[in-house]
Amino acid sequence: MLSPNQRDIVTACVPALRAHGQVLTRNFYDRLFTAHPALRNVFNMSHQATGEQQQALAMAVLAYAQNINDPSVLGGALGVIAAKHASMGIRAEHYPLVGTHLLAAIEEVMGEAATQELLDAWAAAYDQLAALLIDAESTLYREAAAAPGGWSGWRPFRATRLERESATILSIYLQPTDGGPLPPFKPGQFVSVRRIDESGMAQVRQYSLSDAPGRSHLRITVKREDALTDAPAGIMSNILHEVTFTDDILELSFPQGDFTADTSVSTPIVLLSAGVGITPMLGIAEHVLDTQPERRVYFYHATRDRHSHAMGSWLRAKAMAHGSLRARIFYEAVTEGDVQGVHYDEEGRMDAKLLGRLPELADADYYVCGPRGFMAAQIQALKGVGVDARRIQAEVFGSTLA
Asked: How far is Cα 69 from Cα 67, in angstroms, rounded to an integer?
């Protein structure tokens, strides 16, 4: 239990965390992986290489310190972290390892300022946070194991079909190798996928389930991440694209995540996606059309051009078959051969404020998924025209808070 004095000590560290948080988290991860190299099989080492994971953890530590007097404020964020951890196989026994190296990093980075009193305060703060996450993750593991067709840990699935959706996006259809039932899941949830790379290291990544529940398969839809000037090529996405074949085995976690549509209500639903951010929207739209055929669905999708555009014919066909679905496609760049009304509807970037102003969407729920810049722009636009933040959900691809 944190004492009032210990809470004050942690709070007093906020300015230092704001200024030097990533120095601390880099030190922490270096220590952790040096002492426990097997944990490289759990963490996304591509995000380690780019610094994305260090930044995410630094922001999480800062947020926790800022709210140390009332961690319940972080309930939603902690739920996201717990779901991610449960999908990756993080267990209670990992937390003491993390705590040891986090405190050692604090001591080294803060130098003489890291008094025993300060270290004791952070040890107590970490124990409090660990207890919250362990409890939440234990609940998720129990629920996964108890669900019909459920399991805890990893379950092997066979790739039964591969389908190229665009120049860089591939769909993989999966069925369990044991012939058992598929797990129940909510449309919009994700699974972790584990596969061994050429070096013998396990690669674990999260992918949205891109089809609705109740099918004879699970489906993930993966964008190949090519090397950029400031980022290496995506290891797992290239494995899945280049060396995955029909009948190959992938290990999956039980579905997790709360980026899901509320099907207990009938108010309009607005899906705003960009690029591979379309993947959770596919399952959400399909499920709503299946179970609530009269519910109005507005599906707006933005992509760079026709060559990067995935699932365009699927969306057009659904809009033709369901009068309750309105689809709109935005291309940043229109090229020769693109036909307006067939391949795309609007040239340029999406602007969600136009939707937020429609009277018929006064009580709509909004779901946003795509690159961070896209999501930030759409959320800001919606809030700017008076959409209540409680009616906006967003799904971040990549490292979350920790």
From this structure: 5
